[in-house]
Amino acid sequence: MAPWVKALHCTSTLQQALKLLAFQSRFCSITPKKHDLKISPNPENEFLLENLKLMGVDVSMARQRQPGVLRKNFTNEQGLAGFLQSKGASGKTVASVISRYPRAITRSLEHLEQRWQLWRNILQTDEEIVSTLDRSPESFFRSSDNDNIEKNIAFLSSLGLNSQHLHRLLASAPRTFSNSVELNKHRVEFLENICTEMGGNDPEQFAKDFISRNIYILIRSTKRVKANIDYLKASLKLSDSVLLALLQGPGADIVDVSNEYLKNNLTSLQQKMLSHGCRRVDVKNFIISYPAVLHTGAATLSTKLDCLLKGGIPLQQILKKPKVFDYSVQNLTAKLQELHRIGYDFQEKGTGILDTSQKRFKAKLGKLVMSPNK
Fold first, then answer.
1. Contact 297, 329 (CB under 8 A)
2. Cβ distance 340 to 374 under 8 Å?
3. What separation in angstroms does the CA of 47 have from each of 29, 70, 74, 93, 260?
4. Per-residue pLDDT reduced to its tens digit, 271-321
5. Is the dihedral of CA 235, 238, 239, 242 positive or negative?
6. H and E: helices and strands count for the chain
7. Which range among 62-66, 74-78, 262-266, 350-354 shows the weakest confidence by mean pLDDT?
8. Are 256 and 224 in contact (CB under 8 A)?
9. Could you give the maximum distance between any two Cα atoms of the chain, in Å?
10. Nearest CA-CA partner of 262 in 304, 237, 291
11. Phi/psi at 279 (5° precision)
12. DSSP 8-state class, residue 328
């Protein structure tokens, strides 16, 4: 072969090799030198990020909540958006749901349809479901196990909880249905054991009553609940029968707050009332008759009590009508000012007028103004 032909052949071969190398470099990462190496495992899916941004999703929030979702190659954000919007959700709601619970975009349409139908067996309208998942996206998307939810519905129904109870549970404490059935059974047994330990003769009814009064109880720590029950019994010196009646009634609603919160509120209430001449038995009876007062923070409770006392209401009357504590200081102050303006006598007429809605209060006030004997 002539030298010039050999040279041309070499040049052609070299060009083909360079082209092949350039083509391969488009699809294969080239290992950098050691000092240039920057580890970036599982980079985010840029196409997905652009998609989410166009949908109005807060990508920064999504990245903070569940970063792994943004690295997935296959997601269903468009299918999810179409599905939720077909149920009445707005684009803004869809974006908010994905921002707060990105894992929602990994659910298939088949899964979403099954989950929706399960919820529709309890909630009456699509609007209610949209409202619930907008408030708590995790409750709808957290579990991928539809069979578990179906089993939980069957189990909770077997306790004697009716459709209204299940409706309240799903609307306000939907995580109950994402618990494993075994966990829910364990917590129901915990409630039944409390009844048995206190000498109750119908633990199943006790558990049902407790759950229907405190819909959050199955998503609370049993350790916390037990500690609060023990604290109430010891600090108020309650007998088993009185404590059992309290827990089966309005007291069920206070045992799932934090231990410190309950202790601070109870201690503050006792100190405040004792300083105004109450006996310990008065405080005890007050709490038994109206345990919801322990939901009120210590500082707020003290301010409300001062407001009522400065308004000329005797403490004994306050104890007889404890629901006045349900109203804000601003509400009570405004009512007291109106009543003082017309010379209302609390000692003679009592405090019942304070425990009314604003509309009813105005109506009663109007009648008092027209009455010659206030």
1. no
2. no
3. 19, 10, 11, 22, 48
4. 988 998 888 899 899 999 999 999 888 899 889 999 999 988 888 888 888
5. negative
6. 21, 0
7. 350-354
8. yes
9. 132
10. 291
11. -90, 160
12. -
Would you state the torsion angle of the CA atoms of residues 260, 190, 188, 201, taken in this order, to the nearest 10 degrees?
-120
State the amino acid at position 71 in one-letter form.
R
The structure tokens listed for 246 are 């309290």
User: 16: exposed, middle or buried (C-beta count within 10 Å: 0-12, 13-18, 19+)?
Assistant: exposed
H or E element that contains 80: helix 77-86
Predicted structure pTM score: 0.72
Would you say residue 181 has pLDDT above 50? yes
Determine the Cα–Cα distance for residues 374 and 370; give it in Å rounded to an integer: 9
Mean per-residue pLDDT, 171-180: 88
Choose the most confident range, by mean pLDDT, from 43-47, 98-102, 118-122: 98-102
Token pair, residue 198, equals: 């206190």
Instruction: Please name which of 312, 330, 324, 329 lies closest in space to residue 353, comparing C-alpha atoms.
Output: 324
**HSE-CB for 359 with a 13 A CA cutoff:** 0
On whether the CB atoms of residues 311 and 341 are closer than 8 A, the answer is: no
How is residue 184 written in tokens?
Answer: 């829910």
